[in-house]
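Sequence design from tokenized structure. All designs in this work follow the same two-part layout: the structure record, then the generated sequence. An example of the structure record is given first.
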């Protein structure tokens, strides 16, 4: 029974009195009742640390404390850290070290670190990592957080005054608001008359719904409405469909089944939304969900790839679970190469199922304005414009021009927020039905069950080598788990994204891929960081390592022998790609040197003396990013174009607005895009504001995914800025009495080539907006828009080398050294690029060692439904990383950039797994958990 009690709290020095229920947590009171949004909700179950506050000076997870337990105690949130001036140096070091990306975890990290530094004046990195074990960060890989805290420790007693702008003394433009608790994530938005949604979800993996019993809701005050599938259908709403059309080998289109917005008669995976409850508070909406009883007629679930093709169809209208069978390459030539091979290495390779698990769960807040007839959806999304288009064109909410999509700060994504999900569509739709804004934020359990999952391949793979150990062919037969429905890019990821990369950076003439997309009773599978490229890299890097072992060659030697050489560039792969730039031996040799590869045996001996097994593993990769041009994407099956737009606008006071269709989820676009525009126009980034994530400000755009933002979106910014330079030159020529061709522009100054006069770009802008003495026929104003459609993919590449030490008594694998040398083309902001790499490597190590979405093979229940069961890497589980670069410029975009967001997640899994193989002499499947490693060691010892 709940009882209301009075509560007094002093929060950041200010007294608050309110009445709370005896079951309310401190987090609920701070965030929901008092509106202190800097206290973040990442799990609500004491597993992520996002909600950390200081309670009487001690850091606690506010979701794990009942509010009435802390009556009268002082509470400090990150807002108080700023006000109190006690840790300004800590926040400054976070900014300077680039220790935050999306910033969702940052308030909790800062508060934890703040208390720690009070107690520990001289911490070492290992102790800092231990201290942070309760605080998850999914973006940074912790490397820079550990550095920032270590440096802040040295500053603690400093009496130097902090300036008001401490957060922006160095670091990114966006850091100030993220460090000071002033960011606005979607769940932070509360609108007048706000209602709250919660979803009734399937508890069974496969079944018919006989009854939805709502009778218990009669006793609950505050429920506004219950919507079921019938309501949605009677309003004519349709689910978002797959955006990439794949032809089956039979010549027929793929057999696409779209995920319904609500499914109130049949369910096909645990977590599928059945009904939507809307109530006057989040608490009531969630209580209502718990009270509703669903009566199912359950059927046997299909979850495993190896049995799915023989099992009953997930969709009764199909005769099997095959959504498509697709092939790439010349099968005959490959078979011929295999028949002539001196050596063939073949094996089964499993790519484990993952979830992106950004710290901010998905959220949406829909608002319909009756007066104007306009809809506004606030949402966690990577691409507001695609969301708007799908809401209009596919779901049928309203015409596109009547919908606005606004996405403010987004707390990480890694692919999971590309897609249009039913929940956000329904919040917007329900806001019109109920004449009030409707907000929904996923719980962590909902996120595990209903977000898109990634990977999940089962592959039979083989490579053929000639007498000189040159690889002549590779072939794969892959089953790709699609989940219960075909997600928007569910068909692209295991086909083109995967198969086109199977030759990696190696000179292999023949490739053949046979891919079967398979329906199962699981959450849909789609793009997760890398999206097909990690799966391909894992196949080739495992095969090549395995072949080296079988041939008695050093894996380094076999790789070196087969790399595409710089003189072969531009290089056409057998899968149809053309590498326009790259020097694969350059990063390979540099990595081998930096990792001290050839002195590994000495380190291995040292480990042996400590009773540990040590191994070293290499991984080479090349990635195809920034899919384009649109014409090629169309031929491959894309429904949309893959360009990006930018508007670059000088305001009359010569300050600059850069408006981009790309959208950041922690990548730092407000900084990098300002750098790009500033370098073309010669103005400081303090004078530039980057606008994104809002269809009201950006007319059109395609969003952020596939490492495309800078190479495609940034290139659009360059083109638009160059249009302004061109216009400025005409104005300058008029004012300086010369021909335009006689005006030079550099570093923000237009000069006559003969040295007889010059004007700054700021002077030109003022003239453009006060065109009193102005070139005839030239439009006033200083604004330009450009669209950029890439001429080719970009091809980042690199070599990663991992060294592990294994404790045979526990099976624990410690990554002790990690070296990455990458070629991302031109690097615009080194700290941001390194940060992206750190985060990607952390996720890749996570895949190799701990992460695995698991369903019960009998019931189809989701086993890994929390951070306690799905092991996102924590600070103490990861090492620091040695990062360096080589550089070959992309030949076809104006920045020479290639993209860096996915590389770490692509390269790390094979590097780690090859290191484990080097240590154990046995190949394990991912994740190589301590239990699996321990059993392997025991088995080997037993058979020895
Ligand atoms: S929200 Fe409290 S620990 Fe995650
Ligand atoms: S910066 Fe830590 S979760 Fe994004």
């Amino acid at each position: 029974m709940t009882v209301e009690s009075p509560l007094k709290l002093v929060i950041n020095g200010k007294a608050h009195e309110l009445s709370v229920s005896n079951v309310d947590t401190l987090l609920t009171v701070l965030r929901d009742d008092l509106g202190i949004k800097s206290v973040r909700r990442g799990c609500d179950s004491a597993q992520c640390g996002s909600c950390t506050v200081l309670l009487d000076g001690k850091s606690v997870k506010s979701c794990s404390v009942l509010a009435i337990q802390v009556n009268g105690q002082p509470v400090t949130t990150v807002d108080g850290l700023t006000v109190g001036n006690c840790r300004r140096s800590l926040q400054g070091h976070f900014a300077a070290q680039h220790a935050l990306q999306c910033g969702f975890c940052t308030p909790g990290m800062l508060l934890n670190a703040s208390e720690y530094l009070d107690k520990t004046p001289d911490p070492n990195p290992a102790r800092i990592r231990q201290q942070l074990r309760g605080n998850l960060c999914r973006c940074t890989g912790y490397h820079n957080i550990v550095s920032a805290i270590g440096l802040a420790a040295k500053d603690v007693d400093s009496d130097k005054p902090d300036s008001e702008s401490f957060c922006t003394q160095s670091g990114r433009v966006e850091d100030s608001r993220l460090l000071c608790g002033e960011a606005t994530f979607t769940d932070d938005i509360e609108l007048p008359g706000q209602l709250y949604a919660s979803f009734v979800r399937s508890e069974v993996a496969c079944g018919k719904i006989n009854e939805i019993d709502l009778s218990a809701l009669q006793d609950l005050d505050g429920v506004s409405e219950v919507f079921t599938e019938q309501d949605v259908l009677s309003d004519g709403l349709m689910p978002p469909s797959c955006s990439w059309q794949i032809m089956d080998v039979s010549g027929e289109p793929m057999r696409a089944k779209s995920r319904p917005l609500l499914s109130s008669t049949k369910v096909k995976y645990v977590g599928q939304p059945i009904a939507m409850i809307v109530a006057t508070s989040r608490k009531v909406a969630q209580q209502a969900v718990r009270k509703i009883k669903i009566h199912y007629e359950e059927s046997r679930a299909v979850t495993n790839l190896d049995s799915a093709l023989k099992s009953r169809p997930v969709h009764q209208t199909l005769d099997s679970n095959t959504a498509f069978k697709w092939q790439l390459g010349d099968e005959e030539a490959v078979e011929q190469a295999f028949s002539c091979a001196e050596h063939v290495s073949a094996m089964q390779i499993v790519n484990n199922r993952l979830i992106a698990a950004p710290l901010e769960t998905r959220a949406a807040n829909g608002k319909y304005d009756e007066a104007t007839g306009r809809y506004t959806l606030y949402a966690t999304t990577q691409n507001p414009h695609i969301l708007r288009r799908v809401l209009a064109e596919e779901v049928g909410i309203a015409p596109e021009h009547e919908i606005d999509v606004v996405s403010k700060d987004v707390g990480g994504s890694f692919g999971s927020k590309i897609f249009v999900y039913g929940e956000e569509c329904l919040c917007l739709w329900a806001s019109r039905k109920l004449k009030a804004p409707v907000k929904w934020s996923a719980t962590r359990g909902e996120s595990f069950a209903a977000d898109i999952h990634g990977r999940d391949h089962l592959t039979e793979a083989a490579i053929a080598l000639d007498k000189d150990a040159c690889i002549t062919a590779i072939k794969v037969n892959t089953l790709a788990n699609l989940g219960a429905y075909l997600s928007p890019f569910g068909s692209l990821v295991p086909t083109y994204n995967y198969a086109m990369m199977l030759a990696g950076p190696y000179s292999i003439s023949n490739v053949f891929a046979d891919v079967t997309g398979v329906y199962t009773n699981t959450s849909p599978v789609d793009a997760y960081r890398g999206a097909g490229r990690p799966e391909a890299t894992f196949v080739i890097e495992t095969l090549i390592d395995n072949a080296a072992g079988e041939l008695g060659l050093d894996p380094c030697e076999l790789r070196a022998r087969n790399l595409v050489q710089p003189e072969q560039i531009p290089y056409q792969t057998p899968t149809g790609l053309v590498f326009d730039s790259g020097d694969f031996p350059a990063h390979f040799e540099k990595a081998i040197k930096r990792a001290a590869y050839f002195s590994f045996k000495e380190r291995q001996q040292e480990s042996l003396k400590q009773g540990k097994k040590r191994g070293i593993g290499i991984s080479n990769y090349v990635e195809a990013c920034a899919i384009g041009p649109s014409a090629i994407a169309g031929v491959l099956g894309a429904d949309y174009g893959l360009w990006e737009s930018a508007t670059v606008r000088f305001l009359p006071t010569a300050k600059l607005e850069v408006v981009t269709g790309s959208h950041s989820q922690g990548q730092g676009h407000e900084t990098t895009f300002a750098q790009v525009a500033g370098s073309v126009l010669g103005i400081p980034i303090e004078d530039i504001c980057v606008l994104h994530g809002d269809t009201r400000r950006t007319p059109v755009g395609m969003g952020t995914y596939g490492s495309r933002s800078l190479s495609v979106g940034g290139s659009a910014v360059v083109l638009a800025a160059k249009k302004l330079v061109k216009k400025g030159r005409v104005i300058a020529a008029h004012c300086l009495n010369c021909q335009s061709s006689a005006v030079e522009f550099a570093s923000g100054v237009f000069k006559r080539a003969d040295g007889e006069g010059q004007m700054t770009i700021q002077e030109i802008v003022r003239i453009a907006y006060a065109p009193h003495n102005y070139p005839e026929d030239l439009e006033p104003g200083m604004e330009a828009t450009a669209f950029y459609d890439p001429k080719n993919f970009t091809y980042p590449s690199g070599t990663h080398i991992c060294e592990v030490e294994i404790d045979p008594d526990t099976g624990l694998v410690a990554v002790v050294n990690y070296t990455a040398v990458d070629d991302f083309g031109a690097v615009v902001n080194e700290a941001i690029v390194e940060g992206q790499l750190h985060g990607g490597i952390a996720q890749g190590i996570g895949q190799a060692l701990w992460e695995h979405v698991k369903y019960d093979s009998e019931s189809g229940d989701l086993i890994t439904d929390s951070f306690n069961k799905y092991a996102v890497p924590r600070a103490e589980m990861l090492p620091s990383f040695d990062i360096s670069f080589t550089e070959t410029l992309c030949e076809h975009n104006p920045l020479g950039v290639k993209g860096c967001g996915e590389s770490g997640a692509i390269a790390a899994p094979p590097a780690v797994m090859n290191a484990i193989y080097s240590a154990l002499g046995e190949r394990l499947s991912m994740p190589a958990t301590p239990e699996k490693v321990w059993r392997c060691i025991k088995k080997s010892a037993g058979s020895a």
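The two ends are 62 Å apart (CA to CA). We note this feature because it recurs in several other targets discussed in the main text.
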